[in-house]
Specification:
- This protein starts with 20 loop residues before the first helix and ends in a 9-residue tail after the last helix.
- The longest helix has 12 residues.
- It is built from 5 helices and 10 strands; from the N terminus they run H-E-E-H-E-E-E-H-E-E-H-E-E-E-H.
- It has 2 domains: 102 residues, Probable tRNA modification gtpase trme, domain 1 (Gyrase A, domain 2), CATH 3.30.1360.120; 79 residues, 2-Layer Sandwich (Alpha-Beta Plaits), CATH 3.30.70.1520.
- Helix 2 runs antiparallel to helix 3.
- It is an alpha+beta fold and 206 residues long.
- This is Sarcosine oxidase subunit gamma.
- InterPro entries: SoxG, TrmE/GcvT-like.
- It comes from Streptomyces diastatochromogenes.
Length: 206
Amino acid sequence: MAEPTEAGPVRLRRSPLAHLEERMRAATVTGARGVTLTEWPFITMVNLRVDPASEAADRIEKTLGAPLPRQCGHTTASGPHTVVWLGPDEWLVLSQAEGTAVATELKEALGGDPGSVVDVSANRTTLELSGPAARQVLEKGCPLDLHPRAFGPGQAVSTTVGPVAVLLWQVDGAPTYRLLPRSSFADYLARWLIDAMSEYRGPEVP
């Protein structure tokens, strides 16, 4: 993705994988075994902790326009927001809206009740792996069962890809996956994925 063009401090931001943009584009494979890798930088991410049975949780759900998912692997979405389950009382809110605005609205909804709202947008970046061979690429280094019978669209879990810890979210049945590594590990993960994708440039071995 292109770097932001907004004036002021935002214009100075540089994504963790800006230096690999051309390599990721060049790694694209088309056809029946196609797969693409792109970075989605600067997505708003807000860590939320609250008692799911509390009135504060009800207020937060109204603010988000979506219920807080209650089970491991589940996500919910409404408008610009997607909410990912991290634990019994913890979620990650992913949003297309501006981070400060999202965090402020959630803090107001939490009020003085126990809990926390922290903008962690700079903590991770987002890699998108998509195409017919995307699942096979991930299976080279992910211990999860990624077969559609076990993991499908709308599910997200913490796991590893190669040696890198990620939040893995399947967006659709294409399949399209979004991987959220810590920013400091993003370079290694992107290079690992580029290498894993290279096999699919050649013909399938019977």
